[in-house]
Design a protein that fits this description.
single chain, mainly beta, ten-stranded antiparallel beta sheet, globular
Length: 198
Amino acid sequence: MLLEPDKKIALQGLDGFSQKNAQAGNASYYYSYTRMTTTGSIQVKQQRFDMTGSSWMDREWSSASLSTEQVGWDWFALQLSDHSELMFYRFRRKDGKQDHNNAGAIFNADGSKISLTFSDVAIKVMEHWKSPHTQISYPAKWHLSIPGLGLELDVIPLINDQELRVRYQYWEGAVSVNGQKYDQDVSGQGYVELTGYQ
């Protein structure tokens, strides 16, 4: 597999420093290659399949991530057809209130960045899926709205059963994207990560 960046490195947060909450140590260093031309092949039994595509690479490291009030996160990384990308994460709180640490960014086609705060993005869960393996119920369709950027997106898993059952259970998988940006049709692809669901 060969991956070649199409765009310059994207520094998440403030110059690569991503604060997750006010508690000491709950932050990360975080950068991404949001769009990488990908070529290669995969072999299934005796059959080889050549493939091409577009990848996203994240690199993040930290000492801790959640506060005592936070129970998990919903993390979106989306490549849009206008050659922009959206990364946004929202933390879920035990009290159900909006978490002011929710954050992300739009990376435009020219590589410029628009930072997003908790008040810029509205996320509505449209459907749920219950895992037959763990009985955990996960969101399975979302509507993302960023009124300030004229962006309205529906995000749908390619398949519902993308639950990872390792040391702990969480959901991470491929999604498709459709919607509008400034009243123009836009589509895309990406992945979503869901943690802390029970």
